[in-house]
Amino acid sequence: MTMTTATDPQIEEFLAARADERLETYKELVRIPSISALPEHAPDCRRAAEWIAADLERIGMEHVEVAETGGHPIVYADWLHAEGAPTVLVYCHYDVQPVDPLELWTSPPFEPVVVGDRILGRGVADDKGQLHLHLRATEAILATRGRLPVNLRFVFEGEEESSSVHLDAWLTAHRDRLAADFAVISDTGFFDGNIPAITIGLRGMMYAQIDVTGTEVDLHSGSYGGTVENPANALARIIAGLKDADGRILVPGFYDDVIELTEDERRRVAELPFDEDAYLARLGLPALHGEAGYSTLERRGARPTLDVNGLWSGFQGEGSKTIIPAHAHAKVSCRLVSAQDPKRIFEAFRAHVLALAPPGVRVDVRMLGGGRPSLTPTDHPATQAAARALAATFGREPVYIREGGSIPVCATFEEVLDLPVVLLGFDPPDQRAHAPNEWMDLGNYETGIRTVVRMWDEVAELGSAAFADGAAASAR
Ligand code: BES
Ligand code: MN
Ligand code: MN
């Protein structure tokens, strides 16, 4: 999608004169390998934070701070001189996922390249492109008008891809100085076919590891085979007991807090312009698979999951080695919906795994991370302003979608800061986030800058009254 509708002539002129410089600084940010999961990249995460802070200073944001969290820093900045206008808290993340398998990249992940109307590199879409477009929108407004139409607070995080371990504590500690009328999270994308979308649902997450231990070292499978439990076999049996062939999760109590879609919601999901054949073709699979009784979009957006994310045990080399492995391990995660609580789901999961464990091995289950699901309001004035801004700049009304992915801070904004959230994202739907050859559509990026400019103007026009406690609460 390459449509760009003018915002106002000064801003268009400012942006047009800086197209090359903009692409260059976008690439600069992408070149910093800020992989939050890998300790050896901690200095790079800090470098990315400092790069962003310097940019914020340069464009005229205030109270710019690289805030310590105990982990990777948070970048904070604000501009609060739009007296009487609403205040918006904008969230993006500057950290990225690891790049392996490296050999599948057509160009090095941290050397971004432009191919046609795409830019390729780790983080170009998730989430540096979106962070960068917010910087450029703010810069354009401040440079041309000398002021912003709304009050802005930026919170740019560096641990989103590692379960945001330190974010909630920081947000809670700074709750008072983060007061706003609503939050905008730019870390989602467009719908199938690159149709503008506002995400209204995100799934939560419970991430766990199962460790099955037998003997201290591997055993000769001839001398001992048949007389002891095999940790790998035991783990396979445990995993097989987690789900049935219809895709139903067998953990007792797992579905207790899952709310079924209403008929009306199901109808709206069914009306989305989704091409299931193209989806299947793009994946190159022989068939789709999921929980019986639900459509693909329902399975992705409104149903919980349980998936093995990693599995290892025994001999991994070429040829054969005859052993009973000493141990076996699995990483398992559940995507959660409705009122499912990560800790409660973990307890139920753990109890079920232990009940499935055969007596001849030791089984440990621990939780590695989690986040709550969230549903954001469609009829909130901020959501509607975002919809108008998308329609005005992309030339097409957005669709409202439930996404399968997770952004744990969304629930934190709602619960800790009491902020309604708008998920306004610009990634193309098949952007290969977390995978080799991640790409961003430069048309979405460019037009996204205009959408943000337009959105702040729309919000300013509504005025503070539209977001007064009563108004916002009744729309939620
Ligand atoms: N940007 C994604 C979240 C997302 C994924 C939104 C798909 C819309 C569609 C985010 O960076 C992400 O990858 N989140 C993790 C969270 C996890 C580490 C707790 C995820 O969903 O796996
Ligand atoms: Mn992201
Ligand atoms: Mn991600």
What would you note in describing this structure?
The chain is of the alpha+beta class. Helices cover about 35% and strands about 20% of the residues. The chain has 14 helices and 18 strands. The strands form 4 sheets. Strands 1, 2, 3, 6, 7, 8, 15, 16 and 17 form a 9-stranded mixed beta sheet that branches. β4 (about 115) and β5 form a beta hairpin. α1 packs across α4 (about 130-145), α2 runs antiparallel to α4 (about 130-145) and α4 (about 130-145) packs across α13 (about 440-460). It starts with 8 loop residues before the first helix and ends with a helix. It binds ligand BES and manganese (II) ion (2 copies). The site of one manganese (II) ion (MN) has 5 residues, from loops. One manganese (II) ion (MN) binds near residues 97, 126 and 433.
How many helix segments?
14
* Quantity of strands, as a count: 18
Stretches where pLDDT is under 50 for at least 5 consecutive residues are: 472-476
Mean pLDDT across all amino acids: 96
What overall form do the CA principal axes indicate?
globular
Give the biggest beta sheet.
Answer: 9 strands, mixed
Structural class: alpha+beta
- What is the beta-strand fraction? 15-25%
